[in-house]
Amino acid sequence: MQYSPVENQIIRNQYGRLLSRIVVDAELTGVVAAAVEELLRGARSMLDVEPAIMTEIPKGSYLHIRLIEDAGYRRNEGQRWKLERDAFTLRQVQTLEEDRLQLIGGSAAGVLYGVFELLRFISLGISPEGLVIEECPSNRLRMMNQWDNADATIERGYAGNSIFYESGRIVKDVSRVRDYARLLSSVGINGISINNVNVHDIETSFITDEFLPDVARLADLFRAYGITLFLSINFAAPITIGGLDTADPLDDTVRAWWGNAVSRIYEYIPDFGGFLVKADSEHRPGPYAYGRDHADGANMLAEALETYGGIVIWRCFVYDCMQDWRDRTTDRARAAYEHFKPLDGRFCDNVILQIKNGPMDFQVREPVSPLFGAMKDTNQIIEYQITQEYTGQQRHLCYLIPQWKRVLDFDTQATGAGSDVKRVVSGSLFGMKYSGIAAVSNIGDDENWTGHPLAQANLYGYGRLTWNSDLTSEEIAEEWTRMTFGNDITVVSTVLQMLIQSWPIYENYTSPLGVGWMVTPHYHYGPDVDGYEYSRWGTYHFADRNGVGVDRTKATGTGYAAQYFPPHAEMYESLERCPDELLLFFHHVPYVHRLQSGKTVIQHIYDTHFLGVEQAEQLQQNWAALSGLVDTARYEQVAGRLAEQVEHAQYWRDVINTYFYRKSGIPDVNGRTIY
Ligand code: GCW
C-alpha cells in the first residue's frame, strides 16, 4: 500500500487513461466510499492522475464500478458470510466506441476487494489489455485475532504495543487502526476479534455499557472496510461482572444474563460478529467447572447470539497444562481430538470450532492436527499464528506461508483421496455453513508494523492465502516483494529467495526432526533444551544417553498416531515410513538410528545445525548485496535483524549440538567444533 509511482510508461498510460474517469453505479457511502477513496489514493500516487467521479457514462476510456445484488445482501443479514457476496469481476471491454475497465462487485465488500485487486495489478505492472478476472474467495471467514490487552501490551507481540488500547481504554485517535483496517481489507480479511483470548479483568467488561460505545467506534471503522468485529469473552463473566454465583451454562439465570449481554451489544453494534472463546484452557474458566462440556458452553452462547445472526468461535486448544512429567500416559498432542471429536454433531449451527495448527502449539514443525476431517458435522476453522512466537519472534526471518500451505494441502483422507485440509476448512468437503481460517496477528505500534520489515510478508501472505488457498508461496512472496520494494530484478529475486528459504533455515538451527520446544520457558525465544523437560506443560523430548523423541505410536507409545485416518495412521506408526522431518514427533529412537536420508539422527542434528548457521550467514550476505538498491531505513532495519539472527543461530547451534554430544558421546564425523 505504498502505491509507489509506476515506472513502466506503457502501464502507467494505460491505467492513467482508464482511471481518469470513474463511473460509480452505487451509492457513495460506507464500504463503496472507502473503496473509491482508496482507488483515488492509489491513482494519484501510482499514476499521477486525478480521477473524475461521474454518474453518466462518458465517451472514451473509463472505469465502470458496479454493484450487483447488494440490496439482496442487505435484506438478508444471513448472507453475511456467503462467498458469492465477496466475489467480483474485473474485465476490460474494448469496442470501437469505448475502452472500459469494468469492475462488478457482488456486494460493497466485493467492490472493495475488486479495487484492491486493481491497485495490485497496477502496482505489479500487469497490463489491463484483455483483462478478464473473476474472483471469489476460497474461505468465508477470513479472520484476524488480536492478542491485544487493554493495558496496551500484546501477548506474544513482537512489534511494540497495541494500536487498539492505551491505559485500559480503547484509543481515542484511531488513525492507526484505520490504516490497519485498510491493510487487512486489501488482502481480503473480513473479520477481526480485537482483544486477547486470555480475557483479563478490564476486557471482561468490554461487553458492558462502560466500553460498548468505544467498541462500537471500532466496529464502525472496520465496517467501512468490510470487516466484522468480534470480541473475546470471559466465560466466567456472569460471576466476575454479573454478580451471579455461577457461570454454569445450563443455569437459567446464567443463560438469561448472556441473553441480556448480547442484546445490549447489538444495540450498539447491529452487525456484531460474535464471540471468540478460550475456555477450560490454560487456567481460563469454562464449562468443566460445572461438570458440563464444551458443547454445553458453546451452545449457550450460540443461542444468545442466534437471533442476531452472531456466531461463537470456540477454540480447541484444550489440554492439561498441569501435567506431571512423570505421567507417560498423558499426551498433549492427543488432547484436542480427545476433547472435541466425541462432541461432533452436538454443536449449534452458529458455533465454529477453531483448531490450532498444530496439535501441540505453533511449533516450527508439527504434523497436521488429526482433528481436521474427524468431525463431519461441526463447523471448523483453522488457527495459524502469524506472530512468530516460536519461529524467531520477528527478529529472525521466517516466512511462514510454505508451512501453512503444507497444512492446507495435507490430504486427511477423511472421505478418501482429495479430502485436503483446505477443503475441510473451506467447508466444501462436508458442506458446512461456516468455515474459514483465523490467525493471530503480528502487528504492533512499531512504525513498520511488524518489527522485522520482512515479517510483513507473513501478514500479507496470510490474507492472500486465505482468500485463495491455491496461490503458491512463491507467487505470494513475489507479489509482496515487488509491491514493497519495487520491480528491480536483483532486489526481487534476492528477497524472494530469502523468504522462500527462511523457514527451513530456521528449522535447521532450532529443535530437530519435529520434536519441537527446547526453548526458554515462558519467553520462547532462545534455546533451553531441558527448559520444559520436567515441567507441567506436556512438552517433552525425552532425550537420554541412548536416544531422543516422543513415542506416539499405538503399539508402544501414547497412541496419538492412531488418531489419523489410514494410510497416515500406519505411516506415522511405522518407524521406516514416518517422514524424517517428523520422526522425533512420533518416535523415540537411538541416536544411531538411520533416517531415510541415510544419515544417523545424531549426524543429522550436527549437520543441520552447522548448515543452518551457514545459511543464516548467507541470508545476511544476500541482503548486504542489496545495499543501495533498497532505501536506507529499511535496508538497515533488516540488516540489523539479520545480524542478530546470525549470532543467535550460532548460539542455538552450539547449545543443541553440545547438548546432544554430551548426552550421546558420539562425535561429529566431520570433527567440527562442539563444546
Ligand atoms: O502458544 C500459547 C501461547 C500463549 C497463548 C496460547 C493460546 C493466548 O504461549 O501465550 O495464549 O498459546 O493459544 O491460547
Automatic annotation (TrEMBL):
<dbReference type="InterPro" id="IPR011395">
    <property type="entry name" value="Glyco_hydro_67_aGlcAse"/>
</dbReference>
<dbReference type="GO" id="GO:0033939">
    <property type="term" value="F:xylan alpha-1,2-glucuronosidase activity"/>
</dbReference>
<comment type="subunit">
    <text>Homodimer.</text>
</comment>
<feature type="domain" description="Glycosyl hydrolase family 67 catalytic">
    <location>
        <begin position="130"/>
        <end position="449"/>
    </location>
</feature>
<dbReference type="InterPro" id="IPR037054">
    <property type="entry name" value="A-glucoronidase_C_sf"/>
</dbReference>
<dbReference type="InterPro" id="IPR005154">
    <property type="entry name" value="Glyco_hydro_67_aGlcAse_N"/>
</dbReference>
<dbReference type="Pfam" id="PF07488">
    <property type="entry name" value="Glyco_hydro_67M"/>
</dbReference>
<keyword id="KW-0119">Carbohydrate metabolism</keyword>
<feature type="active site" description="Proton donor">
    <location>
        <position position="282"/>
    </location>
</feature>
<dbReference type="InterPro" id="IPR017853">
    <property type="entry name" value="GH"/>
</dbReference>
<feature type="active site" description="Proton acceptor">
    <location>
        <position position="389"/>
    </location>
</feature>
<dbReference type="InterPro" id="IPR011099">
    <property type="entry name" value="Glyco_hydro_67_C"/>
</dbReference>
<keyword id="KW-0378">Hydrolase</keyword>
<keyword id="KW-0624">Polysaccharide degradation</keyword>
<feature type="domain" description="Alpha glucuronidase N-terminal">
    <location>
        <begin position="1"/>
        <end position="118"/>
    </location>
</feature>
<comment type="similarity">
    <text>Belongs to the glycosyl hydrolase 67 family.</text>
</comment>
<protein>
    <recommendedName>
        <fullName>Xylan alpha-1,2-glucuronidase</fullName>
        <ecNumber>3.2.1.131</ecNumber>
    </recommendedName>
</protein>
<dbReference type="InterPro" id="IPR029018">
    <property type="entry name" value="Hex-like_dom2"/>
</dbReference>
<feature type="domain" description="Glycosyl hydrolase family 67 C-terminal">
    <location>
        <begin position="450"/>
        <end position="672"/>
    </location>
</feature>
<dbReference type="Pfam" id="PF07477">
    <property type="entry name" value="Glyco_hydro_67C"/>
</dbReference>
<feature type="active site" description="Proton acceptor">
    <location>
        <position position="361"/>
    </location>
</feature>
<keyword id="KW-0326">Glycosidase</keyword>
<dbReference type="GO" id="GO:0005576">
    <property type="term" value="C:extracellular region"/>
</dbReference>
<keyword id="KW-0858">Xylan degradation</keyword>
<dbReference type="GO" id="GO:2000886">
    <property type="term" value="P:glucuronoxylan catabolic process"/>
</dbReference>
<dbReference type="InterPro" id="IPR011100">
    <property type="entry name" value="Glyco_hydro_67_cat"/>
</dbReference>
<dbReference type="Pfam" id="PF03648">
    <property type="entry name" value="Glyco_hydro_67N"/>
</dbReference>
<dbReference type="GO" id="GO:0046559">
    <property type="term" value="F:alpha-glucuronidase activity"/>
</dbReference>
